[in-house]
Amino acid sequence: MRLFVAVNLPPAIRERIYVDTAPLRAAAAAVRWVGAPSLHVTLKFLGHHDDALVGEFGRALAMAAATHPPLEVRTTEVGAFPNFRRPRVVWVGMTGADALSALALDVDLAFAGFGVPRETRPFRAHLTLGRVKDEMTPAQSTALATAAGAVRPARAFSIRTVDLMRSEPGPGGSRYTVLTAAPLDARGT
Asked: Which residue among 30, 41, 51, 95 is least enclosed by CB atoms within 10 Å?
């Protein structure tokens, strides 16, 4: 099964962010937009693994999560990787980047023992809103950047768990299922 580790948003926050970012969807048809139920923060992509490892993965995730306190975060500006001149991914940034980076690092280390390759790029806390399907024209990129500049999806929420997720590709996009919810320790370290 295809697995990853994520921070899931409360359903009401996901819906509000989706509504907040509607102008982006109207401005750029060349982007494959993520539906509201699928908005999350990916901490680590694990790849394809045997079902038998889910229990061990859950325990490793629980140990990593227990060393971090719950987090209070807020979404911030809309951006694009690598930039709006040549966008490949459209995203919403987040506060709490240092704490989320530390959590992502510990998750990365927890799965290295299972043969999952370590991350080579620095972690950037964000919610992926969409991925560009085809190369955008300069006019399309400008329209997207203009719409992004007008969107302010500032939504606050608490992160209390880190989730081991299964991704199942389908005709309408991937469907995500929580396999294990690992609580962040209220005492922290």
From this structure: 51
Helix or strand or coil: residue 50?
A: coil
Pick the closest to residue 168 from 159, 158, 178, 160 (CA basis).
Answer: 178
Q: In 137-151, which positions are buried (b, 16+ CB within 10 angstroms) versus exposed (e)?
A: eeebbebbbebbeeb
Task: Break the chain into its structural domains and give their ranges.
Answer: 2-183
- Whole-prediction pTM: 0.93
Residue 65 burial (CB count, 10 A): 24
Q: Distance between CA 55 and CA 58 in Å, rounded?
A: 5
In sequence order, which ranges of 3-137 are alpha helices (DSSP H)? 11-20, 22-27, 54-65, 97-112
Cross-strand partners of 28: none
Give mean pLDDT, residues 67-95.
Answer: 96
- Whether 89 contacts 78, CB under 8 Å: no
Determine the CATH number of domain 2-183.
3.90.1140.10
For 142-166, what is the HEC assignment? HHHHHHHHHCCCCCEEEECEEEEEE
Catalytic positions, written as ranges? 40, 126
